[in-house]
Amino acid sequence: MRFWKREELTEEERRYRRRQFRTRVIYAMTFLSFTGLLVRAAYVQISNGKAFRQAELSIPKARIPVLPQRGWIYDANGQVLAWDKPSLSIVMNRYSTMSDATYQRLAAKLAPVLHQTPQALYSLMKSNQGAIQVTLANNVALAQVAYVVEHQSDLPGVEVIQDYVREYPYGDLAGQVLGYVGAITAENVKRYKGYLYSQKVGETGVEEQYEPLLQGKPGYELVAINSAGNAIAQAGEIAPQNGKNLQLTLDGHEQACAQMIVQSMIQKTSDKNTVENAAAVMLDVKTGGVIAMVSYPYLDPNWFTLGTLSQHAHYASTSGAQVNSAIAMVNYPGSTVKPANLITAMKAGLVSPQTTVQDDGYIYIGKSRKNEDEGFAFGPVDPIKALTVSSDVFFYEVGLWFGKWFGSSATQGGSWPAGDGSYQHYLNTDLARGLNALFQGEADFGLGFKTGIDLPYEEDGRFYILDSEQGNQQVPYDLKASERALARAGEYENHGSPASLADAAIGQSQMFTPLQLAEYALTLANRGVRLTPHVLQAVYEPNGTPTNGARPESTVRPKVAGRVTAAPWQWDLVQRGMVGVTSSSDGTAYGAFAGAPYQVAGKTGTAQIVLGGKPTDNSVFICYAPADHPQVAVAVMAPGGGYGAQFSAVIARQMLDAYFNEHHAPFMPKSGWTDTSIPANWKSSPAYQIPEQSP
Question: Is residue 466 within 8 Å of residue 365, measured between CB atoms?
Fold first, then answer.
């Protein structure tokens, strides 16, 4: 017999052998388990497969919608301007007609659960008749959810949904730009194929413009239901796809400052009710991005998403706050058009640096007399001085020269060329060509037509002509139709007057939006390069934001919308005149910019208008700064605000100061430097408080 000596193992070797043993045991158990599964599978598939498949298919499943989170909206500095707050909501679906008695019964049953009176709940159920679904309560408690679920059979059309409440944390900050969301209605349901009735959709502003990006796609939770109709198990899930996040070009700090500045200026006016609406726009001259867009009166989008609109119904329906005045308000620009008209005149060879006009305070056109504003008489005026002091007489002459009406002065009314024959033939030919040259020159700068900004409900501008058959009242002038007729037949029939040429030259025969004026100022700053304004800066995937280091999915690049070609000396001359407006002691906006540590190229405008049956002035101002190396362009318009120099120019100066202080411009005193955060006093300012306290 052979004896084996016991093998002495080290501790490491013993651990290794134990691991080998456990591994072999696991392999054996796995093999046996799989063998058992194969046998069982054969039994199920071969022996009872048909019965089991039938049983599985016979278990009903409910598909419960899971709404996506709408994309968030950020400002240029990464501050949240709009977000989605998760909540549970109780809603009523109105897919089919229900009797009034049913509404009354449901209201009585749910009122104590939702802590409302039956009458209030009944009114809510019957409200907004166009909506297919109406929200009865947001942010409901679990006890309220349980009641609806337990009494579902007694509550037709009532259900609980996981929802998101859209919130705008800074209230009326850029309210008309951001817009708001609302329910899908019977009127717009066809626009939203594939949407759930419970989804909220953008109704105005960025929310509407970028609805496809912000919305996302719903998901579903599959729940197995037993024969009693009770959920017994979760059977699967299709996760929702959240909406994409957007970063705007809007600078929240500058936007807040601008709204506070405009509100403060209106509060300081002698008659606060005179200025019913106003707008201010600041653009980045290198990109066309909108840095600030103010539309007064202000609007808080939360009223529409948090159910508080009824508390501000009068204000919202009568103030005009639901209109974005920056893109939809059209009014006379006054003398702000003079730089564009001067460029056009110099290009046409009608004006040179040596051109001089004697401004005696008035001029005759035919038998009618047109006066200088406020009775001023500037004496001999060259092009630079004409811009600096805003000589109307100089530009009356320029307008008449475009239409070949020569000889007007303080002593005689001038006449049309003898070669034109009849006066009517003159109107149909040379006068029409002159008006077209002026208006088209302005259009080349972005005036009179939509800018193409990425916001809904932008308005075109308008052009006018005096019509002798309408009592010399202004009537719409179709620039494109006139150009086509002249190109085709050499004539465009009209019943105008040479006075229309003079009015057009000083901004009293056309209406533009504040945004068009801002784009025009940008084009002047860029010496003829016109960029399309835009509010979108970047798009991020649902998990990406401007603040978490994610790279944007896409960004918006500057888009050249057109070019105005002029000689360098012509741009230099216009800029000298515009700098004189703000820096020369006889400049019309000298008082507003006195002491500014930077140069501004600007132009005031004061157009005569009628508000509420009373004559008043449209206060307008455009500018770009710094004049030597432009960064931003600004336009301000306030119908009823008085002189452009005393109202709109003051607003523009303060907006520029706020911007340069925020960006720590080296020419600004360090003591005034700020940061990019939205000012801490925003919610205590009148710009925020006045709308919130309005009935």
Answer: no
**DSSP characters over 268-319:** HSSSTTT---EEEEEEETTT-BEEEEEEES---THHHHTT-GGGGHHHHHHS
Residue tagged 């009517």 (tokens): 424
Distance from C-alpha of 194 to C-alpha of 185, rounded to nearest angstrom = 14
**Residue 376's CB: how many other CB atoms inside 10 A?**
14
Q: Which amino acid is at 547?
A: T
pTM (two decimals): 0.85
The pLDDT tens digits of the residues spanning 295-307 come to 999 999 999 999 8
Cβ neighbours of 412 (radius 10 Å): 11
Q: For residue 421, give the DSSP letter.
A: -
pLDDT digits (tens, 9 = 90+) for 195-220: 988 899 999 999 999 999 999 999 88
Query: pLDDT digit string (tens) for 660-690?
Result: 999 999 999 999 999 999 999 999 999 999 9
Instruction: Report the C-alpha gap between 389 and 669 in whole angstroms.
Output: 30
Task: Tell me the chain's radius of gyration from C-alpha atoms.
Answer: 35
Whole-number Å distance between alpha carbons of 97 and 226: 30
Closest CA to 326 of 660, 532, 634, 561: 634
Q: Measure the CA–CA gap between 318 and 120, rounded to whole angstroms.
A: 25
Domains with residue ranges and CATH for the chain = 66-71+87-165+186-241 (3.30.70.2110), 252-312+517-528+564-692 (3.30.450.330), 334-511 (3.40.710)
